[in-house]
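Pipeline run #58 for the internal structure catalog. This entry was flagged by the ingest filter as a single-chain record with no existing model, so it goes straight to prediction. Upstream metadata was stripped on purpose; only the residue string is passed forward. Reviewer on rotation: M.T. Logging verbosity set to normal.
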Amino acid sequence: MAHTTAGRSAGGAAPLPRGFRGAEQGWPELHRIPRPPYRVPLLGDVIGSRPSSPLQDSLRHGRRLGPIFRRRAFDREFVFVWGADLVAELSDESRFAKHVGLGVANLRPLAGDGLFTAYNHEPNWQLAHDVLAPGFSREAMAGYHPMMLDVADRLTGHWDRAADGGRTVDVPGDMTKLTLETIARTGFGHDFGSFERDRPHPFVTAMVGTLGYAQRLNTVPAPLAGLLLRRAGRRNTAGIAYLDRTVDGLVRARREASGQGDLLDRMLATAHPETGERLSAENVRRQVITFLVAGHETTSGALSFALHHLARDPEVARRARAEIDQVWGTTERPGYDQVAKLRYVRRVLDETLRLWPTAPAYAREATEDTVLGGEHPMRRGAWTLVLTSLLHRDPRAWGADAERFDPDRFEAAAVRARAPHTFKPFGTGVRACIGRQFALHEATLVLGLLLRRYDLTADPDYRLRVTERLTLMPDGLRLGLTRRRDAG
């Protein structure tokens, strides 16, 4: 596994050692951590596992084995954590930091030292974070809002035609179009023309391919990956080349035109407020790719899961529509401040992210020798994968009905009564998602617009299936639409 250290530890200590390849080196008492009962020599804990759904396999193991467990894949052992008390410890930034490993490290040929895939010791992470953070201020968000509305108009135009023709809509496909166009327009002044295409834009096809390949690399022995995934590797290389060319063209066009004050302008023209340093041309490419991929893939999944639950729960949809009608009234284009007033719609979104965090796991590594939970020693550099999907369903934090969809879990009083660090859809600490407020505003706005305009009809024969490509997405979800008589 690649270099995954956390740079310098607290107090200016020497750089941390290289991250451990497997848990055997980092967890001195690994044998005390539960594991699946049947282990196949050379292959590991593969009985009952499916290469296409490693996350869902881990969730099944976690429910049986408890809040901390381990699994072996070929020659490597991994430790997983989901218990709320243990995750709270792992959130302590004085003892733990982000770990870049597994599928995230596999994305580095694409995203390099971009904000999501940078190792903690790489200077471009802090530089880019400081330069770009003002791009997600309240003032900046208010400037993005009209463009979000324009893209949403293209979606509703597409859905209006489907409703008028009595056709169902491909929810994940259309949410992917929506969120790609939104981040492309607001961040980089670019239009992919997604709603004018019958098939996904080649950018989306290449992106899905690279995400899938990054996950597949963890399903084969590392020494054999080049042989077993030779054809997939060639497709991945071609996909990365296409993504690079697309972004290079986008950046080149901006350098030749006047600025628009968006994220790309900040990347190209803004110096660090203290050091005066600027992002290199190569890092600008990495950051653009990071935002285009991460900025739409997770939000499209969250919207798709939310619409699935709204179509299945008429009472939740009724309450959400009542709030939208009360807060927005007859306003055709709600203002920026009106979105934050949709408190129940936001609770619907939060409850969706609880059950289906579309970035379903994140890794943490020890920045010093420590003991997790009072009984599991960890050496400096040892790491574990936090299963957000199980953390969010821990009955000790969320109650005996934790599997049930209930937006009222996010009423203010309920949130205050819950222990901290039990809700982590955007990661944790200084390396948490920089664009979380952008994503929440976009998703709340879109849910409000769609619920005000349509009644959603679920297919009674559909059973939720989940596709994994490092993120989560409903598979094959289609909904029927009926225009509301009082909609515009």
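catalog note: The radius of gyration is 22 Å.
catalog note: The first strand starts at residue 68 and ends at 73.
status: ready for reviewer M.T.
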